[in-house]
Structure prediction request, 213 residues.
Amino acid sequence: MCTAPPPPSGAEPGEGVPAPLREPLGSPPADGLFVTDYFTRTPRKLSPFRSFASIELFHFHIPEDTVIAVWNLITFKEQGGTFGDHCPDRSITVYFRSGAPSVINPLRTHFPRDTAVPGSFALTLTWTLPNRTTGVFNVTSPLPGDWFLAAHLPKDEGKISVKVQGFGGLYEECQYLFQPQLIVQRLVNIAVLYPGYASEQSMAPHNRSCLYK
Prediction:
């Protein structure tokens, strides 16, 4: 194990103390432990894109020292309170951005000259089952802090809604629901070094490196 230096005099109480362990994964590294955190959001009904007000916006917070963030993107169809097996497949576009919501332009309109449009990640989900599909989006060493996901259906092309015949001959509207989940793997128990304070470190013989903050 890599030994951590004691905090300097005057350090804030609890500074450098790791969060409680929750779910250790595999063999811990020599200088810390990997733990996972899981976050989920309530499913929301998606709408065809008309303007920025048409999107569904989801907010996540990625902790410090996250090694990898994995978003599990779940989409399913509903019709009349049951699974929409007979609803048509409609692609779902999902955008990812750190720090603020994405600036999106699905209609391919032109921004004014000299407009700075910040970049974002985007992917399109297609259907793998009659009423359900999933997608995965990974980010290694993500920026900590606020992350935003935006999702929508394609432009409506003049149609008011998609309806298919349900039980009893009634026509029910098809609904497309989207639920993002986030799994992060992060390091805890990382030793903290303080500028201007000399400290003596030791390394176990089987270790080849140590990680410090």
Notes: The two ends are 15 Å apart (CA to CA).
